[in-house]
Automatic annotation (TrEMBL):
<dbReference type="GO" id="GO:0046872">
    <property type="term" value="F:metal ion binding"/>
</dbReference>
<keyword id="KW-0645">Protease</keyword>
<keyword id="KW-0479">Metal-binding</keyword>
<dbReference type="InterPro" id="IPR011765">
    <property type="entry name" value="Pept_M16_N"/>
</dbReference>
<dbReference type="GO" id="GO:0004222">
    <property type="term" value="F:metalloendopeptidase activity"/>
</dbReference>
<feature type="domain" description="Peptidase M16 C-terminal">
    <location>
        <begin position="196"/>
        <end position="378"/>
    </location>
</feature>
<dbReference type="InterPro" id="IPR050626">
    <property type="entry name" value="Peptidase_M16"/>
</dbReference>
<feature type="domain" description="Peptidase M16 C-terminal">
    <location>
        <begin position="678"/>
        <end position="851"/>
    </location>
</feature>
<dbReference type="InterPro" id="IPR001431">
    <property type="entry name" value="Pept_M16_Zn_BS"/>
</dbReference>
<dbReference type="InterPro" id="IPR011249">
    <property type="entry name" value="Metalloenz_LuxS/M16"/>
</dbReference>
<dbReference type="Pfam" id="PF05193">
    <property type="entry name" value="Peptidase_M16_C"/>
</dbReference>
<keyword id="KW-0175">Coiled coil</keyword>
<dbReference type="GO" id="GO:0006508">
    <property type="term" value="P:proteolysis"/>
</dbReference>
<keyword id="KW-0378">Hydrolase</keyword>
<feature type="coiled-coil region">
    <location>
        <begin position="355"/>
        <end position="389"/>
    </location>
</feature>
<keyword id="KW-0732">Signal</keyword>
<dbReference type="Pfam" id="PF00675">
    <property type="entry name" value="Peptidase_M16"/>
</dbReference>
Amino acid sequence: MKKILLLICIIGLFTPATLHAQDRANVFRHGKLDNGLTYYVRHTSMQPGKADFYLVQNVGALMEEDNQNGLAHFLEHMAFNGSESFKEGIPNFLKRRGVTRFNAQTGQDETVYYMTAIPTNDTKLLDSCLLVMKDWSGFLLLKPDEIDKERGVIREERRIRRNLGARLKEQSDPLVFNNSKYATRNVIGSEKIINNFTPEELRAYYNDFYRPDLQAVIVVGDIDAAKIETEIQHLFNPIPKRKNPKPRLVYEIPDNSEPFYTKVFDKEMTESSITLLKRVRQTPPASLKEMMKENLINLFYNQIVEKYLQKYIETQDPAFVQTMVGFSGLVRNYDRWNIHVQAYPHKERQALKDLMEELERIHRYRINNKEVKEQITAYLSRLDETEKNKDKFPNEVYVQMYQNNFLEGKPITSIEEDISLSREILLKITAKDIQDWIASWNNNSKNWVFMMQGNDPDYDFPTKEEIVNIMQAAKDVEATTATEEIKAVPLLDYEVEGGKIVKTKPIRMLNAEEWTLTNGCKVYYKFCDQNGIKVSLLGESSGGMSLLPAENLPSASALSTLAMYSGLYKHDVQMMQEILKGYHVQPNITLGETFEGVSGVCDNNEMEMLLQIIYLLFEHPRFDQNDFEKFVYLNRLQAENTPRTVNDTIAEQMQKLRVKDSPRLWKQDAKFYDAMNYDKMVSIYHDRFQDASDFTFYLVGNIQREEAQKLVAKYLGAIPSIHRIEKAVQHDLRKEGSITETITANIPDNKYMTNIEFTNTLKLKPVEDLAMDVIRFVLSNRYQDIIREDEGGAYGVNVAASYTAYPKHTQAIAINFQSNTEQGDRMRAIIHEQIDKLVAEGVSEEDVEDMVLMMKKGRTNMLANRGNAHWQEALRYYAETGKDIDSPVMFEQPIEKLNAKIVHEVAKKFFTTAECVDIVVRSK
């Protein structure tokens, strides 16, 4: 939750800490009731017709007594199981009104409940959402029978969370948090307590800490702020102020004077690595200005370190494969300096020496006024963007700001004040400021934790003493010879002889156009300003790796990684970084199984740079054999030294069950990398990216038609063509027929993981396609009620439905869940029983009406927020079918015909003729 001072840090542009009273009263209302409850209400227009409701509790797992370990999270679950005003449960009420986005999350210091995307044209629903938050705040029923049913759900959630990351964290947390309460409260809690606590113990926590002085109500969206404020006062003011409340303690982490050292092992780890973590206690800033300055310094530091470590890896030959270094938040009131390194096998000591010495050089020599000025210039550019778009922040940004103010006391400012203050601060930040900031937390040997992570307990990691000596010796490192300053040159050093647009075809149904260029290339264009100044370009050609012989697939697989790894045209990667400094251009190139493609995103004033890059990717790609050989060497080394895990065994068995044997299926082992050939890779690239006439481009975004035409003709029109026609080869390696199989493996925690997929190729009408969504909805609700709520056999059951009509009719329903080995077989049987029941009995009209309501609301929201990605897909669909993907024929007309009878008929047709792949992976 730390350091959300600037919206820039959240959304890439700019973020004020929170909002100040200088905002107009009808826009922002903020106050505290007599009983201590805090509220924030803000009107926004970025998401018209929608509002978000949050109840923030300044309490979490740290407030639990030893006999309550896990009850903060358990209570969060119970908040959805019945309350004073919603006896049958809040989810039932919300779903019947088309509200599907609601949830809660429990942390160590706070618990947050929320309902989002609430339609604001329904005043009764708005009032009801406030009532929901009131009930969450202190009016839960907490019935003993509901508590007992929820125990199973929590047990299964705990089982899901017990993954590799959780197991490693359990080993390291006692040292990271120095055996403080942060180390003993992992939120999910103790299984013994979950199984045996009494309702009275849960109510004790609830009564102690769910009280107005520890709560904040936040409402942000397209609402009347003054009216919502009045409703909050009316609803929450009568709640009495708690007398003699239990103190809400703030928990600290004791210092450790000497480094802690631990070896963290798990048999599922696939590589060895070292993490050095320094815990840093935050110092409360003296003012808003000081806080903003520190955050900017932190941001610049992380960016400078990342930049120069990347340059070090590219230009030197360090003993490590990868590294991540940064300064960030740890928990409330604490930060961490994190140094992570993955070395070449058995090179950990040298890798750590290389890294620590380079970090010392960065701290001493690379953080200079020239570098800081570059950081400031780039940031000021983003600040200008923010000022232009200050009225377009999504609701989530304001919600986060208000949470920070309530939970951590971050100052309240307006956006305008924050922009102005940021500019003032940026004018005065120097390299010395950053170096002084580093010295403020990197000036002693306290609070270090050294973590060795791997698969083999006998692996020869450096000892604590060796690490301390390496770190100490690095402080004496001398400056390396200064590298020659690189000055950017133009990307292109010659005039491109472009083509022309020889044919323009309006696409009225999409308010778009189709352009044909002199080289045969086709471009579909659509203006869209939904994403601000962003422009998206996608170019695709059919073929891909499907046209290559099996022996060339290893060489081809390196293309997507190495296509721009060595730079472009005459420019190596460092020069390309200089050329693109200050740009927001994000080019990409892909060689897929059935297509080859180029793509990119940029600001509208950067479109020429993006198109120049695309042009050069066709005309003058740049490859370097040394880079290729390094890539092959590193991957082969990793393949040879990665220990085999149970996940490998499971993946092999799953492939054996579902996929035919084929020479096209390469296992990524040493043989795979031995088969890679540099000349073949380059030859494949030139073959796949040589024919503009076989490419179709989709250009969408905030760029005017005339400008787009000029740039497209010049650069895409200049790409040569050989006018070949290619189609991808469909190598269908999927085994046909239904499969039922159980795979047993050495998986910890008594797990039972079920994946069931039904597939079919029925020729369905649009109304029947929509019926598939109702089937998914009904099954999901039934599994929620039976498997989760009644049986306590799973934390949740995921049901997904998909259907397509082009290029061929396909439908699928996938069901997956995780249970335990004692209940798993029964839960698996319930999945099939409910499908059989659906096929036999159908669904109710009420089920259909509920789903239709949600589908209509979702459709309205989608149509109102169609951005670049949507229109790009719409243009692709039109290019392939000649149809409008958003046509009323696809939704508005068939949805009115949808009823229970049609759903029943589709369910019978689909399930009785579908292939079913039913695979369980379970612990031995």
